[in-house]
Amino acid sequence: MSRVTGTLVLAGTPIGDIADAPPRLATELESADIVAAEDTRRLRGLTRALGIHTTGRVVSYFEGNESARTPELVEALVGGARVLLVTDAGMPSVSDPGYRLVAAAVEQDIRVTAVPGPSAVLTALALSGLPVDRFCFEGFLPRKAGERLGRLREVATEKRTLVYFEAPHRLDDTLAAMAEVFGAERRAAVCRELTKTYEEVKRGPLAELAAWAAEGVRGEITVVVEGAPETGPAELDAEELVRRVRVREEAGERRKEAIAAVAAEAGLPKREVFDAVVAAKNADASGSGKGKELI
Fold first, then answer.
1. Which residue among 26, 71, 105, 193 sits deepest, i.e. has the most Cβ atoms within 10 Å of its Cβ?
2. pTM here?
């Protein structure tokens, strides 16, 4: 006989407007044996707004105690409990607590299901006006400037639309870094306070958005950035080839590997990319007189 275990339910919560709460959310909150919440105070506010009461045990489950609390919740699930996981806004596990618990539950063959709900990622993507057929979610960028630049360089040639979360006080620095790595004219959209009273979507080139953000921005922020342009061999001049090699090198690739990758992307012989790199190096050394490399 197969063993009987409980169920882990990931429940989406409103990202702003309480009216966006999925109908099943109230039912699950009222009936769960255990409600694991990122912030129990926010949970109380949510249940008040929905006009309901939880009957199960409420525990906190946030970044600081995820590792310690996961085994406890898995034990309850193995024992047959229905555990509901909610975060402050949006879907658990998407840049929020939840991944560790889901992974541990799956490892124990525990059923995992979801109450679909609002998502800042998909909402911002849909409102951005940028291509939505292919996209990738990059979450929050590192706080330190050097690490942030490194992460951006890793996706400098990514052709899919990119979606990021960012804190309002770091938005101007992040947009400026994006303009530096992706290009000042790369299109983007800053989505602020989605579904809330002061919702705003600011669209434009990255450099323009960085200047706007320098004046100060408040609220929950999601940034959507256009992917790298589709280019063929005829459209890539030597300068662009060198730039792409440099980006890959700064992301940690060896020069030989970077040249091979750029050549493959452009549909060109590796020798042609290598020659462009050497020419740029010689031109820079000749111009400066100090031998400083471009790449």
1. 105
2. 0.76
